[in-house]
Amino acid sequence: MSRKKIIAGNWKMNMTPTEAVQLVETLKPLVVNEDVDVVFCVPAIDIIPVVEACKGTNIQVGAENMYFEDKGAYTGEIAPAMLVDAGVKYVIIGHSERREYFAETDETVNKKVQKAFEYGLTPIICCGESLTQREQGITIDWIRQQIKIAFLNVSAENAAKAVIAYEPIWAIGTGKVATTEQAQEVCCAIRACIAEIYDDATAAAIRIQYGGSVSASSAPELFAQADIDGGLVGGASLKPDFGKIVNYNK
Ligand code: PGA
């Protein structure tokens, strides 16, 4: 089964609404590639102007986070229905920065994943090990645990539609990209874990991204790996270089 590549930008806490629209205008002509699903995951306040600016293009808009309740007294949070109404299709769940700075756990990730599917949003579920964990030799065990908890009570039908982003924490924003062998090894293990939880068809359908210092120069080799179906791109997604990453195969 051939999986369509998915390359998503994660803008993090960058770009005012005005800057966001300017960036979309700059990137719009550069990110055209019919072989790739292109997603811009943007700060909540940028979503509405970015959805508007992306109308008529191949770009889909994603959120960087959402809450796991439908609505109510959760000051400062964003509900899934708000994202859907604003035209959002994807939502990053459990990015390592959210786990580290905002106390997200595998359990809250699981609640958010279930909620995203309830609303027809596609979650981009993040996992990844620290440098210490890699040095301790527990990378695969750790990732398998993150994946198993993230997918608790998620049907095979929904799981097949999910996107997983494998992002070694030591590679994020450091310029230290994982080797293609390291990235492929973990992405392959994630797919095997999905096959164990569900079945081979679900494992064959699910898309697994690599993230962590992806650049125009590292993208072609990474995305050519058997189990790497694209990337989640931070720093380089804010620059014209993102066009080169999206067109890694041209
Ligand atoms: P980076 O970020 O590409 O800047 O390393 C990736 C991410 O955190 O999603």
Write up this protein.
This protein has 250 residues and is of the alpha/beta class. The two termini are 22 Å apart. It contains twelve helices and eight strands. The site of 2-phosphoglycolic acid has 13 residues, from β8.
List the helices and strands and how they pair.
Elements: E1 5-10, H1 17-27, E2 36-42, H2 47-54, E3 59-63, H3 80-86, E4 90-93, H4 96-101, H5 106-118, E5 122-127, H6 131-136, H7 139-150, H8 156-159, E6 163-166, H9 180-197, H10 200-205, E7 207-211, H11 219-223, E8 230-233, H12 241-246
Parallel strand pairs: 1-2, 1-8, 2-3, 3-4, 4-5, 5-6, 6-7, 7-8
Helix pairs in contact: 1-2, 7-9
Bound molecules: 2-phosphoglycolic acid (PGA).
Which sequence of strands runs across the widest sheet? 1-2-3-4-5-6-7-8
Number of helices: 12
Bound molecules: 2-phosphoglycolic acid
Major pleated sheet: 8 strands, parallel, barrel
What is the approximate shape? globular
Relative strand content: 15-25%
- Poorly predicted ranges: none
Along the chain, the helix and strand elements come as: EHEHEHEHHEHHHEHHEHEH
Q: What share of residues is helical?
A: 40-55%
Instruction: Tell me the total number of β-strands.
Output: 8
Describe the structure concisely.
The chain has 250 residues and is of the alpha/beta class. It is 41% helix and 16% strand.
Task: Write a concise keyword list for the protein shown above.
250 residues; binds 2-phosphoglycolic acid; eight-stranded parallel beta barrel
